[in-house]
Amino acid sequence: MERLIAENKTYKYYEYTNEAEFEKAIVDHSNQIFGRNTVYIDIKKKIGDNIVTIPDGYLIDFSFAEKPRLYIIENEISTHDPYKHIGSQLLRFGISYKASGRNIKKYILDFLMTNKEYYDFVEKRSKTAGYRNIDAFLDALVFDIPVAAIVIIDKSSTELDNVLSQLTMDTDIIEFQTFVGDNELIHKFIPFNEEIRDIEEGEKAGIRIEELDTIVVAAQAENFQTTFIESNAWWAIRISSSMLNRIKYIAAYQVAPISAITHLAEVSKIEKYKDTNKYIVYFKEPAKEISHVILDTKKKGTAPQAPKYTTYERLIKAKGLSDVF
Question: Residues of 285-323 as b/e, b for ≥16 C-beta within 10 angstroms?
């Protein structure tokens, strides 16, 4: 069983057996999980007539200030069957969503009307996005912008990936785990829109998230030639749903001993990769070698371990990785 150590205390993995308890932990820590540019809407209301479902909640995401997005929230514990619980819930929601738009808008508006802090926040951010009032904003959010989903679960699995790969709805997975020791709880998770959050929270000066258009992937020597160069594609990439329609370029960071971004390609299309919740990126043309952007020592943690986002302009002008990220 996995354990954590902090300040000479040992914390054991805590297995949730009650979904309500797990969901309470998510709601209590929603600000940390989703970030300051979001509103977690903790409402459970039935939607649909012939096909009925009850989402666990909704999230209004203002990470991209000019293009906010609505997410349905599905909180689940891993002991539940992903096919019967998560898959069927999201499928029913996808079918019921269009016909239930007016009700969903009303539920969200009612929630905001009873929470002045949230109402004021959404009103301010909706005006920044160019909407004249909250009513017009919610109309666009519910009816004009494709809804996405976030599944929050204590342990992810290949079975869950397989279920989500069958859905047409863009879906992110957040793994939220809890550890307990001496009657104290600590939580382990990767934040929603992690790479975007780094920029939002001021850790990457000089990058505007609205301008992000390039994904950088780490490439091992054995895969780089056969895949990135010869197949004109790169696959099995986790990409946050908020970035899917923004990626115009893909760059390859060749790991040690090269330790540099060496090639760049324009993106043709992005599709789900086989029976996974990951993606394959196809190139418009074969990747071109660029002036190598080397791993420097100006900033720690710049070498990509997982996909990272930047801008084309920033990448082309960079001399070292610290100029890119």
Answer: eebeebeebebeeeeeebebeebbbbbbebbeebebbbb
Residues 6+ apart with CB under 8 A from 260: 253, 254, 292, 293, 294, 295, 321
Instruction: Give CA–CA dist 321/325, Å, rounded.
Output: 6
As beta bridge partners, residue 13 has 179
What does the DSSP 8-state code read for residue 323? Answer: G
pTM of the model: 0.90
Domains in the chain, start-ordered, CATH in brackets?
Answer: 3-192 (no CATH), 197-323 (3.10.590.10)
At 215-239, the pLDDT tens digits run 999 999 889 999 999 999 999 999 9
Residue in the block written with tokens 């009650």? 18
Instruction: Compute the distance between CA of residue 164 and CA of residue 278 in angstroms, rounded to an integer.
Output: 10
Question: What span, in angstroms and rounded, lies between the C-alpha atoms of 150 and 79?
Answer: 18
Close Cβ partners of 47 (under 8 Å, ≥ 6 residues apart): 53, 54, 55, 93, 96, 97, 100, 103, 104
Paired sense of beta strands 148-153 and 69-76, if any:
parallel
